Amino acid sequence: MARIPTLFLIAFSLHTFAGSGGPDAFGYTWKDDLEPGGPVFSWIDITGSGTQVQGLADDNVVGPVVMQTNFDYYWYSRKNMWIGSNGYVAFNNGNIASPFPVIPNAAGVNDYIAGIMADLNFSGVGNPGQCWVLDEADRTIISFINVPFYSQFAPGYTGSNTFQIILDKPDAHITVQILQQMGLTMNNDITMGIESVAGSIGLQHSKNVYPPGNRAIRYYMPDVPLIQVTDVAVAWNTEEGSGGRFLSRNGANFQMVTQVSNIGSVNVGALSATGSVLNAAGQNQVNATQPISSLVAGADSIISFVPVFEPTTAGTFRFRTLLGGVSGDLVPSNNQLIQELVVVDTALAVHDLRYHGTTDDALGLSWTGGNGGVAMHLIPPYHPILITHTTVRIMANPLGVPFTMKVYADDGPGGLAGTLLDSVMISGAQAGPGDKVIPLSNEVVLNDGGIFVEWYMVGENVSIARDIQPPFSLRTYEVIDGTYAEYRDRENADFHLGVRLGQAPVIDVGCDGFFDIEEGEPITSSTPVRVYVRNYGNQPATNIPLAYRFNNGPIVTHTYTGTPIQPGLVALVTFPEDLVPITDAVGPLCAWTTLGPDNNIGNDTTCVNVQTITGISEQVLRPVVLAPNPATDRVRIDGLPAGRYALELWDATGRLVLRQEAVTVNGPLEWPLTSLLSGSYQLRLMGDSGRFGAALLIMR
Fold first, then answer.
1. Which of 35, 72, 119, 348 might form a disulfide with 172, Cβ 3.0–4.6 angstroms?
2. Rounded CA gap, 302 and 450, in Å?
3. d(CA 471, CA 341)
């Protein structure tokens, strides 16, 4: 599908083929079936033996198709290929759409084979277009069957094209066979040829020429290449694709990681890689250089730079990798790679996720037919997030047509748009030029993964603004009839498209200690179990399931249904069943919450070790004599049988304040009190001869 702002006036020709061509800079040549020594046209029908390719639409790419064996192409070898709906096979996930480039062209997508590369279309009701693949050990065949050109008029397609691309693996030749070609494409925009990963090296068969049917063209790999290629490249920053990243201000540090690849045909000696993070003014925030001793042809090196970047300031940054020390590099432009980093102040109650800046190109973008759109892939720096609005800048809308704003989860095939989370239609009256902040019909909570925010036309000539100031996120997509493909100019633009986040609801409730039950406390009688329940989240909480258990005994449950506990506050909750000693035992008394949607189960439980003692209420009546009582610094305990005792002192609130071991042989037991405050206490003594107790008053 074509974009509205661009008009092409191109001279074209019908079926005026030359018979041979080349060589290109590497040494590839081509011949057709009318040339002596050229290929023989012999159509290979694979519709019964091959596999039909699913998912092709208008201006999109499907893949990778993993071939059984590698295919040698230029000075390197490929095993993965992607099939473009516009009649080409690429060895990367690049989307090529109208206007189609001349070959060679260092800009844009490289590393592809253009069969009949034109504005083809697999979409539309009744569209007969098909694509089939037959992959064998010695060859791979890709057949485009009855594929029409795109048309802005109903039913959305016109004409028919049947052709195939054959990769012959033993000799590395490429054959393109055209069985039938009918009809015209918009702007007569057709390219046929091959282009290397370098982009500046390629062989064009023809441009803007309609090929005749029942013809064959073969591209020949040279027996001896005309050049030996030195080419070292920054393959990616952070991860394959080098897509933009959101970071949280004062959040986790960012580790600069890059892959350096020797994509040439010769080994290279010592070189270096320098990783930097620069702010919007171009000032270095962190910088590191890593030497690479050597890199053989086809090899990769992954580098983790030290130090790391600390995201303490919100704003847009660039992670840049530069290669140095490579002499004679054929493609110096790939010695540098920039990844966009956006540091978001997530402490704000409301903040936006967007890659675009404040400026735009003043032109905008829209699609012919009014049935297209664009999208941005946004991966938040934290979870959960609460999406409340979408944001968009409309450049022009002279006819006042509506558009839709949609939010999808990125859970679709290949990480593309999957589950529709929200959709809002914007009426023509509200769709005029300017910045829009559009409420979702229902706020969305996202607990993991990312989202696609999509702007889609519902009529002609409404256009979205583009930001053409670097850095660029490389996370832009074009959407035609619901089919996603990487935006054809993704290296040169971001869309004014994003989402607004609010404070995500965090449900997090846990137990935060017991009331009046201390560590080591003896439980001698039926004791109420009261627990502090704290709301660690940011939403009021009630209807909270609770439970407690002593040792391995029965679990006692209760649900708190009282006044909602506000964020950060605590409620004291009493279980309806007391803890009753049924055996003499020592073990943990634990209480916990069992709330379903709980953000952090690590704070749900609180425990203390206690001792249950049966029959203590009768035995503590065995008196001992304390003197003096009131006491000041020491107390004498009379009336104890000889033996070993555990002495405990409990204050008036029931808190254990002192515990120690003591032995009496014949006579009273002396106990110092210098560490204790004035007040009323309960003295308890437990030994082999029984259990004893008395009240003690300390006065100073």
1. 72
2. 26
3. 9
